[in-house]
Specification:
- By secondary structure, the chain is α/β, with parallel strands linked by helices.
- The protein is built from 8 helices and 11 strands.
- Strand 2, helix 2 and strand 3 form a beta-alpha-beta unit.
- The longest helix is centred in the first third of the chain and has 18 residues.
């Protein structure tokens, strides 16, 4: 079993550009850290990475492509495989379109978590819109809670955080607790994971866990851990740890792929 202190869990599947973006994310971890990587994918050859000393590959099982949310919820299967096949005490869950843009150590992750079990960055807005925390809270009430727990009371505005799950830091024990709960919820709610036009994804699960179920477990991380042009003014800022080239649940485009490659190779300075 992988016994590295930090393990990076990454799921890569879907459209061909996800494999190309994911290759850059994997290379960024290899270049910018000494972390072990646990990759879950259905087509390793599409990524073009085979024998790497710090790379462990796990075969992704079938994903119900007709239900769009399942493509995102497959992250939970990836995390369960990670926990079953590694012994890393610290976990970094990284989206395929997120890259390390500066050197990161286990101590950086421990410091960021500050004793908490889970850590994520709050997405405070969508640039070029009027979105604010109150709008995100209303969205959470109308969609996430409706699907996951219609009887639940949303937290007060000052306590709520719209956490983005593109980068998640965690201590192993907390991630085990999260995955156990998520698996139970998936069994209880096997439908299409949709409320109106909104699909319920892994991010909704993480938000409910961190805002309603176990708010004491989650540490709000600095923007540096999930820096994105869609919610951070002044992108790219040179002191970020991770640059997230999110396309709002859509596949990466070719321009994004060029920018992803440049970001981890050259940094954001």
């Amino acid at each position: 079993m992988n016994q590295a202190e930090v393990g990076v869990c990454m799921l890569i599947h879907g459209h061909p550009t996800y494999y190309l973006a994911g290759r850059q994310a994997l290379l960024s971890v290899l270049r910018r850290s000494d972390f072990q990587i646990f990759l879950v994918t259905d087509h390793l050859y599409k990524i073009g990475m085979f024998r790497r000393k710090r790379l462990q590959v796990h075969q992704l099982g079938p994903v119900e492509q007709q239900v769009r949310a399942r493509r995102f919820l497959a992250k939970f299967s990836a995390l369960e495989a990670f926990l079953a096949n590694t012994e890393s005490e610290l976990v970094m869950l990284l989206d395929a379109d997120a890259v390390l843009v500066r050197d990161i150590t286990a101590e950086d992750i421990r410091t960021a978590l500050d004793g908490r079990g889970l850590g994520m960055v709050e997405q405070t807005t969508i640039l070029n819109s009027t979105m604010s925390r109150i709008d995100f809270l209303q969205h959470y009430q109308r969609h996430s809670l409706v699907w996951l727990d219609p009887q639940a009371q949303a937290p007060a505005l000052e306590d709520y955080r719209f956490y983005n799950s593109g980068v998640v830091l965690a201590q192993r024990q907390e991630m085990e607790r999260f995955c156990s709960w998520a698996r139970q919820m998936l069994a209880q709610r096997p439908g299409d994971h949709r409320v109106g036009e909104h699909i319920i994804t892994d991010q909704d699960y993480f938000q409910y866990y961190a805002n309603n179920l176990h708010p004491e477990s989650c540490r709000e991380l600095s923007w540096r851990w999930n820096h994105c042009e869609h919610w951070d003014k002044g992108f790219p800022r040179p002191d970020a740890y991770v640059a997230h080239f999110s396309n709002f649940c859509l596949r990466p485009g070719w321009r994004q792929l060029r920018r992803i490659r440049a970001a981890w190779r050259q940094g954001l300075g």
